[in-house]
Amino acid sequence: MQRQAQISPKFLYDAHGCALFEQITRLPEYYPTRTEAAIMTRFERDIAEAMAGCQVLIELGAGNCEKVRRLCRSLGPRQFLGVDIAVDFLQVAVDRLGQDFPQLSARAVAADFTADWHLPTGVPQARRELFYPGSSIGNFDTQQALHMLRHMHSLVAGDGGLLIGIDLPKPVPVLIAAYDDKQGITAEFNLNVLSHVNRLLGSDFNLQDWAHEARFDSRASRIEMHLRARRPVMVRWPQGQRHFDQGETLHTENSYKYPLHDFLAMLACAGFDRTRVWTDEQQWFAVIHAHG
Length: 292
What we know:
- Strands 4-3-2-5-6-13-12 form a seven-stranded mixed β-sheet, sandwiched between helices. Strands 1-11-8-7 form a four-stranded mixed β-sheet, with helices on one face. Strands 9-10 form a two-stranded antiparallel ribbon.
- The longest helix is centred in the middle third of the chain and has 17 residues, at 185-201.
- It is globular.
- It is α/β, with parallel strands linked by helices.
- The protein is 34% helix and 27% strand.
């Protein structure tokens, strides 16, 4: 039996993938974005107090830079760095942010922050705060997430900190609907990864051969996104080929739903301390500030 085929979730986010994900965040089924935004609004003063003194604000997976605007207003940092792999999409957003906040030195940084990336030269040693919203940390398995958190800690160790959003466990029907919406936008987003890989690798994935699937793994407490072969398929690329049986899947993304105490333990293991937690009334989502 062949090993489970996988594509890294970072390849979901080419320019078209980023635009589709923006649409997903506005869907009625997709609760994380609006729930996190409500928490950020309700506890704005408390969050600003926890991050007071921030001079350099760094957003990971910055995308359209919309979420960071509230922090730019409340914290008044001197410098902003938006970090993302989709740099063309990011640059437009960073330019717009710089125009709207003239006192802010805004800069786009092209980097794969799932690896051991480094800040560009010239970033001040003044207090740094990392912002990683949207529960994106859940896209990585526990060991990879812990490695990323340790690297984040190394960037802000001392007087800095991390503001991070995590999605909490909740009823499975709510989860499935959020990753398999009625309009089919999430399906289009998932299938788009094949177009992106075709451009990058010269492969010959035919999108008509594949169907989107979302499932929940209760043992791992995670949503899994797959692409299921509609029929027997042979996929070729310059370095090789692979046959997929009908019904065989290509695993494209995980989204872990961490119990709060488990994630706080991960932060402590990564070196962070003095955490503050804000949640919604349903306890569906948490925003956490962890001191470096």
